[in-house]
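Try this one yourself first.
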């Protein structure tokens, strides 16, 4: 199931096709082994509760750089980073319940403190 991610205040598009990733298997695989990612595509990871540890990611077997945006219970961006291939770990600065992995240019469309909305596509 896909979601459209937008800025809450302005309605500006952040990501047109974010795949809802709530199952264990989806979260475990993530974007490993992908060699390309469309400009409007990404994964929206959904965790059971906000956490720094559970929202941490690794980049083993990820062959392209990713923009990662961590989001809290209130849908506020708490951190955003460029994640490089084959790096051992990236963790958010604050606890997050959601995070988005997409192409690095997503970092041009969001900032820490922004509030986002997830709409059904």
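Now uncover the answer:
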């Amino acid at each position: 199931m896909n979601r459209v991610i937008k800025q809450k205040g302005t309605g500006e598009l952040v990501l047109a096709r974010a795949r809802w990733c709530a199952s264990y298997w989806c979260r475990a695989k993530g974007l490993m082994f992908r060699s390309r990612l469309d400009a409007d595509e990404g994964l929206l990871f959904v965790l059971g509760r906000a956490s720094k540890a559970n929202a941490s990611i690794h980049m083993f077997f990820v062959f392209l750089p990713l923009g990662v945006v961590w989001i809290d219970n209130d849908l506020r961006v708490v951190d955003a980073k460029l994640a490089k291939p084959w790096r051992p770990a990236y963790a958010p600065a604050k606890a997050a319940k959601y995070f988005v992995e997409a192409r690095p240019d997503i970092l041009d469309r969001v900032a820490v403190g922004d509030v986002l909305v997830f709409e059904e596509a």
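Discussion: The domain at 2-110 is CATH 2.60.120.1140 (Jelly Rolls). Helices lie at 24-29.
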